[in-house]
Amino acid sequence: MWPSRCKPARRAAMSENNEQPARASRAAFHQANQARAEAEAQRLLAAKAQLGGHWLGWVASELYALKPPTYAQMVRRELQRLSR
Length: 84
Description:
Helix content: over 70%
Shape: elongated
Number of helices: 4
Region (Disordered): 1-31
Largest sheet: none
Order of helices and strands: HHHH
């Protein structure tokens, strides 16, 4: 039988203070890039009528090309929100 792949348990020694900078930088990243992600999602959605049936594949490739992945996720979520 193959060994199970489990997520390692969090270390008890890790304090909340050690996690705080990561949260702050993540929040700062989102705040700094939110407007740009919304604009990018609007650009992608605007091309839907022009591209027709090819739009989904095109959007997937556009999202894949965005860097960093965190920003690409922001754009994907905005695109999902705008498409509702």
